[in-house]
Amino acid sequence: MVKAFSILLLSAACAVASARSIKAPLHKRGSPTAKDVVHADTHRWANLKSNSKIIPALNNEFSYFIEVDMGTPAQKTELLFDTGSSLVWVADSQFKGSKSKTIKDLKFANLLEYGSGNVTIDFYSDSLAIGGYKVKQSFGIASNVSAIGTNGIIGFGPLDLAGVTNQHNKTYAIPTPMDNFYSSHQISTEVVGVDFRPIWNGAQQASNGEIDIGGIDHSKYKGKLTYIPVTKKSPAKYYWGVDIPRISFGNHVASTGRSGIVDTGTTLILLQQNILEKLFSYVPGATLDSNTTLYTIPHGKLNKLKDITFTIGSKPFTLTPQQYMIPQNQYENWELTKGVHYTYFSTLGFDASLDAIIGQKFLENYYSVFDTTHHRVGLAPRK
């Protein structure tokens, strides 16, 4: 019997191919502006250096949250689903450790450094359940989360990101939730399949996502999955990093020999600024908007837009202009100016150690698989 379970992310009517479907609502808190989204995405990686393993900051808007049960008796909370981190932590306003009969104090703390601030986390061990699947999980409880802007995360990144160092400079390797589900024989392979969907028609939230923990939903994509091994380039190799040999605008090659990170916790598509400027240099007047820091296309130049193709591994993955431009019926939600045409692209700066962050706005067009067992990422066109 294939062991897998599915998490439905705000999806009211989604076909599920795995043996058991576990539904968990996903909520967007508040109405972010374009500035909020860009600030959160870029500051997420602001402290990352070429050989650093700092856990990046998390954006809390336009993101996917999983409902989980923590402690005994169970306390329900929503944690941000993030492949850019491998730790689990929750704000003390969302989980009261004193109310759990099974909690164990691990007696060490860790300061997580974020682009937008720092947060001190005290680590404990207790039960964590998603649907009917329960494990004993080490996680952090944080009391000073105002600078971070989210109430907790559940990380599905590689194990390389799961180490924490206490106040005495001792490092602990903390098994990820995926590791614990696998070692307890509740899933048969350490794989998570991700199906994200765009938001349309001016909606502020929608039933638009699903993840399969321990399995892949083959009904969600067309053709075959292309698997790309995790890159050997630093610092992307510590994450779900992939080689990007070529980035093209139509028939024009804008950049070669790059690498980047596939990350569900980043909303936009972020590129080093020199790559970004070359990519849109084929559209007269295209520029980085000083207010939002989104790349914009002048009115009357939409006919100059071409498909943008990321060659990832050896396979081309293309976004059409309709897929990388923000729909005008979403402008009010993002607080954007009418008469200007905005893309989902923004900048990492000129001196960033990463070339690219492939975020949700890319993944809403491609089914993605994060395969810990084989140290690879899978991509296929979404149905």
TrEMBL record:
Residues 64-380 form the Peptidase A1 domain. Residues 1-19 form the signal peptide. The keyword Hydrolase applies. It comes from the Eukaryota. GO terms for molecular function: aspartic-type endopeptidase activity. GO terms for biological process: proteolysis. The keyword Calcium does not apply. It holds the Pfam family Asp. The active site is at D82, D263. Keywords: Aspartyl protease, Hydrolase, Protease, Signal. SUPFAM superfamilies: Acid proteases. Belongs to the peptidase A1 family. PANTHER family: BETA-SITE APP-CLEAVING ENZYME, ISOFORM A-RELATED (PTHR47966). This is Peptidase A1 domain-containing protein. It comes from Entomortierella chlamydospora.
